[in-house]
Design goal:
It contains one helix and four strands. It is of the alpha+beta class. Strands 1-2-3-4 form a four-stranded antiparallel beta sheet, with helices on one face.
């Protein structure tokens, strides 16, 4: 069974990071706002989480106002 890591931003489930053989992570989104980075490869989970936060930030800012 594959191990995966949940990628969430402030309680929003953005998708999952799937470890690759080379130590990187492939992103599988569940939130439609994350589709543009579907199947993208990331060297670290922190870089992927940072990108997810940037993609979801405009929506999160609207909810706060």
């Amino acid at each position: 069974m594959l191990k995966s890591y949940v990628i969430e931003v402030d309680g929003i489930f953005a998708g999952a990071a799937i470890p690759q053989n080379n130590g990187h992570f492939r992103f599988v989104p569940v939130d439609t706002r994350m589709q543009r980075i579907r199947d993208s490869i990331w060297p670290t989970l922190s870089e992927l989480r940072r990108e997810a936060r940037l993609l979801l930030k405009p929506r999160m800012e609207m909810l706060m106002h």
